[in-house]
Amino acid sequence: MLLLDQVVRNRAAWQLPGDQRIPSAPDLRAALISCPARYALDPDVVQFTRDLVLSKPDLLAASVDIQRVPAPQLCIEWTEEPCEPDPPVRFGLFVKVAQNGQLGEKIVVYEVHDHEPEISPAPFAFDFDTILKGAQTGARFGMSHDRLPLDNFFAHVTAVIDPQ
């Protein structure tokens, strides 16, 4: 079963510690059910993409201005192969964008082998045209990689933190 379909059926995935619920849960559940564009990446595609980006480390940063999401809403998921001793992890994204395909929001879902899927409580806003700055409702974050210059790429993404 696709990870995002599994999340729709698993009410426990909508829970936060305590008795709190993820604020966007009802809207996200409805959006996942009706999402017309769904992609489950084959492991060979994931490996090809990883190899391409690692062999051309400036590719992400250099292409930010031409990156577009191809549909108003889409689901995409893939499995990250394990690095011993870690188990494999399935990742899923629900992406909702504006008409130009460069501005929108994504919600991350993940499942570690033999565990229930979880939804990140903070959605991520992105704008490939603008450097996003953290604000009261957002948090800037950085990410590093041994072989990739990710600072410019992730300058276009911010976590959206619910003030409550």
Strand content: 25-35%
Oligomer: single chain
- Termini separation comes to 33 Å
**Class by alpha and beta content:** alpha+beta
Summarize the biggest pleated sheet. 8 strands, mixed
Mean pLDDT across all amino acids:
75
Using the alpha-carbon principal axes, give the shape.
Answer: globular
> How many individual helices?
5
Nearest-angstrom radius of gyration?
16 Å
Helix content: 10-25%
The helix/strand series, from N terminus to C terminus, equals: HHEHHEEEEEEHE
Residue ranges: pLDDT <50 for 5 or more in a row? 135-145
Strand segment tally: 8
What do you see in this structure?
With 164 residues, the protein is α+β, with helices and mostly antiparallel strands. Helix content is 23%, strand content 26%. The chain is built from five helices and eight strands. Strands 1, 2, 3, 4, 5, 6, 7 and 8 form an eight-stranded mixed beta sheet that branches. Strand 3 and strand 4 (103-112) form a beta hairpin. The longest helix has 13 residues, at 43-55. The protein is globular and about 45 Å long.
